[in-house]
Amino acid sequence: MKDLFGKALLDFYHNNYTEDLITSTNISGDDVLPLPYLFRSYSEMPKLEQKALQLAKGKVLDVGCGSGSHSLYLQDKGMDVKAIDISEGAIEVAKLRGIVQAELKDILNETETFDTIILLMNGTGIFQELSQVSHYLKHIKSLLRPNGQILVDSSDIQYMYEDEDGGLWIDTNANYYGELDYFLSYKGEDEVPMKWLYLDFERLHLACNTVNLKCDKVIDGEHHDYLAKIYI
C-alpha cells in the first residue's frame, strides 16, 4: 500500500491541506472525505462514537485509530489508551498529536489484554469479508480481560441496493451485499484497492454466537448504522 491515507493526515497536520481524500466503492461513485473530519473533536463526533467513548472503561485499545481523535479524547480524560493502525502516517500523526501509546500494528498481531476494545467509523470494515468475521472475533475475544467489552459500529447497507420503487436488486448468488471493494485516491494518486465489510447487526450477532460471545445493540444511528457491545 502507498499509505495515501497517512500522507493526507500528515499533510493536514503540517498545514499542507489543499485537497480532501476521494473514496468510492464497487457500488458507489466518488465521495469526498474531508480531512478536517478526521481530526474532529468529541462535540463534532456522531452520537454513536460519543456513546462508545462514554461506555469505554479501564484499559482501552483503539483499533484503526486514524489520526487518534478517539484516543485523544479518552487520554485527556485520564484513561490508559493504546492506539493501533496499519497506516504508518496515521500512527505518526497520532504520536504528534500527543497519543502516548500509538503503534503500527494489525489487530491480529496484538497480544496485550484490555478492558475495552473500540472499533469505530465502521469498525467491522477491517474484517474484510463475512467469512473472516468469526476469525477476527475469536482473536479479539482473546484480548479481553474479565468483564471486558468490544464496542463496534457498522451499517446495514441494504438500502444502497434499493431501486426507486423500494425493490432490492441484490444478487442472491453473489457474495454478502456488505462486502465491498473500497477505493481511495489523494492528490491524483490511487491507493491499492482493499476489501471493506459493512455488517448488519443480525449477522454480527450470529457471528458472535459462533465464538461464544454475547452481542447487544446499544443504539441506532441516524442512517442505517448502529453501535454494538460485544462481551463474554
TrEMBL record:
<keyword id="KW-0949">S-adenosyl-L-methionine</keyword>
<dbReference type="InterPro" id="IPR029063">
    <property type="entry name" value="SAM-dependent_MTases_sf"/>
</dbReference>
<dbReference type="Pfam" id="PF13489">
    <property type="entry name" value="Methyltransf_23"/>
</dbReference>
<dbReference type="GO" id="GO:0032259">
    <property type="term" value="P:methylation"/>
</dbReference>
<dbReference type="GO" id="GO:0008168">
    <property type="term" value="F:methyltransferase activity"/>
</dbReference>
<keyword id="KW-0489">Methyltransferase</keyword>
<keyword id="KW-0808">Transferase</keyword>
<protein>
    <submittedName>
        <fullName>Class I SAM-dependent methyltransferase</fullName>
    </submittedName>
</protein>
